[in-house]
Amino acid sequence: MAMDNKPAEGDLSVRFWGVRGSHPVSGLDVCAFGGHTACVEVRCGERLFVIDAGTGITRLGQALGADAPAQIDLLLSHLHLDHVIGLPFFRPALMKGTTLRLYCGNLGGETAEVALDRLFAPPLFPVKLAQLPATIEHVGFHAGETLTFDDGVEVRTCPLQHPSGATAYRFDHRGRSVCYVSDIEHDELGPWPHEELLAFVRDADLVIYDAMYTEAEYCRCRGWGHSTCDAGVALCRAAGVGRLAAFHLHPWHTDADLADMERRLDMMMPGSFVAREGQEIHLTAARAAA
């Protein structure tokens, strides 16, 4: 499987801008893996998608700068605070002429507009999203549907077990595939891996997976909506997945803790890793059969 850090035209690529769950952290003991909450950039060639708007989205906005696309599709896994808190600080949202489309699939087909207007409004926030210079558009769907965008690009989705629900996303481009599977409770719906999710991630090159807890921690936190590296590995092995990226990292896990997790993860599933802020993964387009 071709996967490296050297971009090529037409690649399916991933860049991590925020990898933590629950809340951001800072300090000398979290520098290596980073402290921002969930945000992942996915590019299908030059086509940009953004998944989740945790505090990591602020760094993505800075990196895009004035070269940000005129229209940006932001796919929200769900609306918990750690996944949306960076939204009004995303630089393209502060640029007149930009259209930011927010997709939400865990509200039974409803958009995120009402919920976000409750959060980003006085007295909790000084302005509403509609007052930002960019145009904000809201799209609701049912997790499990396939999203089809204006340019014909399709993104598959899958519902996840999580308080108030969550949505997984799958990107397929030129023979390569990446799945984003966060936040998920793996032990609440019967035998693991769940058949629907197993089919969803089948043969993916990379699965970005909720690894919030160690096995010992998970025993104390059942029902909170998160998972472990071990459960992720079991899913990926059963589905023929190439690599797992441990994601949605616990805010209390230090660089030393995560380095230990990564060593163990690589032993269980060689080539897998714990996601780091700024890390880029490029999946070279598969060659057509002769």
TrEMBL record:
This protein's name: Phosphoribosyl 1,2-cyclic phosphodiesterase
Residue span, Metallo-beta-lactamase domain: 36-222
Gene3D superfamilies reported in the protein's UniProt record: Ribonuclease Z/Hydroxyacylglutathione hydrolase-like
Domain of life: Bacteria
